[in-house]
Amino acid sequence: MLKKTVDYSILLAFALLAVMPCSGQDVYNYSGKRYNPYLDRFSLSIGAGLSAYNGELSTFFKPKLQNYYLNPGLGLSFAYRLLDNVSFKAETNFFTLSSESEPVASDPINEVFWSYNLDYFVAGVVDFIPQKRIDAMFSRWNGSLSAGIGQVIFSPRDNVAGGKKFGQIISSGSTSSQYEYARLSVIYTLGAAVKYYINKNQYLSLEGTYRFTRTDFLDALKDTSHSPFDRYLTLQFRYTIIFDSTPNGIINYEKYRKMYSPR
Fold first, then answer.
1. Which of the two residues, 247 and 117, has the higher pLDDT score?
2. How confident is the model at residue 253 (pLDDT cuts 50, 70, 90)?
3. 89, 91, 120, 154, 255 from 187: Cα distances, Å
4. CA distances (Å), 215 to each of 153, 200, 202, 208, 230, in order?
5. Whole-angstrom Cα distance, residue 178 to residue 165?
6. Residues 21, 232 contacting (CB under 8 angstroms)
7. Distance between CA atoms of 106 and 41, rounded to whole angstroms?
8. Which of 127, 123, 47 is nearest to 88 (CA)?
9. Given strand 175-179, what is the order of strands in its sheet?
10. Which residue, among 157, 162, 131, 126, has the nearest Cα to 144 in the 3D structure?
């Protein structure tokens, strides 16, 4: 009787050992990227910030002429993660620009413009630190670079006539003429961001994006002795939410964190 009991105990022990690895794999399979919520595919960002421009009336380094950069803007973007550190995003921004020209003794009336603008573009984003498959290798702080292409819609106005239907072209130092121009231009974007992850589904970021345009009428003024195209940039504080697609019931994520997080 005792021998049979021992035999049954040995068989039961072997059965448990055989079942445990399989059961553990069902509950704690951490090899797949889909089990790390930080690497979920889709995310949505909203942001608010300021903008500045570089053109005939002012440069980026003259804040006094540009209302001290207090030109507000709002942004929205939707991103898709392709690899651990590579994503693609579609972004749109509504923002304002304003500036006046440098005062000169010979011309006491300064040129002034302001505008409401809308741009949209697609961009590739590369993170500095690839986020690994397991949470123990995850970095709360990260940075990224981006580059893209899109379009901007602009409508510059002045505070005298209320709006400029035609652009002004200045040539030969003093000669000027009127020119009807398109209110839409292609843009090329370069961006950089610093990110801080609040948790596995949210992060905050400070993002600056520089735009090269293909128009010289962003301010409705073209000086043939000046750089051929206007440029502008935005600086935004952003909040991003990551859509958690981790399968429910697949893993006990909190237990996993305790098991594998560095002490």
1. 117
2. low
3. 16, 13, 9, 12, 48
4. 11, 42, 37, 21, 6
5. 9
6. no
7. 59
8. 123
9. 175-179, 167-171, 221-223
10. 126
Give me 143's structure tokens.
């940075």
Instruction: Write out the two tokens for 54.
Output: 């570089």
Q: For CA atoms 89, 144, 68, 59, give the dihedral sign.
A: negative
* Selected residue with higher pLDDT from 181 and 189: 189
For the ranges 10-14, 86-90, 243-247, the one whose mean pLDDT is highest: 86-90
How far is it, in rounded angstroms, from Cα 182 to Cα 152? 11
User: In Å, how far are 65, 102, 170, 226, 228 from 173, measured between CA atoms?
Assistant: 22, 16, 7, 11, 16
Q: Which pLDDT value is given to residue 168?
A: 81
- The pTM is what? 0.76
User: Would you state the structure tokens that stand for residue 64, as one six-digit string?
Assistant: 């006094």
Q: What pLDDT is recorded for position 142? A: 92
CA atoms within 13 A on the CB side of 72: 3
The DSSP secondary-structure symbol of 24 reads: H
> Who has greater pLDDT, 90 or 141?
90
The position carrying tokens 């072209």 is 169
Query: DSSP secondary-structure letter at 242?
Result: E
